[in-house]
Design goal:
The chain has about 200 residues and is of the alpha+beta class. It contains six helices and four strands; from the N terminus they run ααααβαββαβ.
């Protein structure tokens, strides 16, 4: 039973670690300290291996739990119920939690508030579109964090950050903000602007 508890603990730990790079930006948003958002982005390359290890560990834990016991495997009373932490119910709860954690990058954007505001553009001449190349984004949560910070600025019309492309396409009113302010907002998340191109 101790080995099963170790398997469950290992499964939980690897699942949380695998999603830590995507959980941190949401925690940074909640804590109001956006600079720590990229703190665990270095974990992203290891994520597939951590997910694989989690699946193997929990799969083995379920195998151990479901395999028929031999007469010599158990020195307990036949009617003795296992402790909750050693039950199938607990293992089921842990498994559901692990699935939720591993899927976190796919629904993490839901934690970011949608900013809708009416922007009045006085002169179309002031509208500028710039692509900001950004390093360090690894999932949808990272991109949403960048969008959230940039949208706090006045004069932002459209913000589309993409972790796949490693950039943010931003359309803004030059009379209300500028590239330097936008770059500072992006850099405040912990991700860094490496280049920018005007369109």
């Amino acid at each position: 039973m101790k080995s099963q508890n170790k398997l469950v603990s290992t499964g939980l730990l690897t699942a949380i670690t695998a999603s830590l790079c995507c959980i941190t930006p949401v925690l940074a948003l909640i804590a109001g300290s956006s600079g720590i958002a990229s703190a665990f982005s270095w974990i992203e390359p290891f994520r597939p291996y951590l997910i694989g290890l989690t699946i193997l560990v929990l799969g083995f834990a379920w195998y151990q739990k479901l395999k028929p016991l031999k007469e010599t495997d158990c020195e307990c009373e036949p009617n003795e119920r296992p402790k909750f932490i050693q039950s199938k119910t607990f293992l089921g709860i842990v498994t559901v939690f692990v699935i939720v954690m591993m899927a976190f990058p796919y629904y993490s954007g839901a934690f970011y508030p949608k900013v809708e505001r009416e922007i009045i553009v006085v002169d179309n001449f002031n509208i500028q579109k710039t692509e900001f190349k950004i390093s360090g984004m690894t999932c949808e949560s990272c991109a949403e964090h960048v969008n959230h910070e940039v949208n706090k600025l006045n004069g932002i019309l459209i913000t589309k950050a993409s972790y796949q492309n490693g950039n943010a396409m931003i359309e803004f009113d030059r009379s209300k903000t500028n590239e330097a302010e936008i770059e500072n907002a992006i850099n405040s998340t912990g991700y860094k602007v490496t280049d920018k191109n005007k369109y």
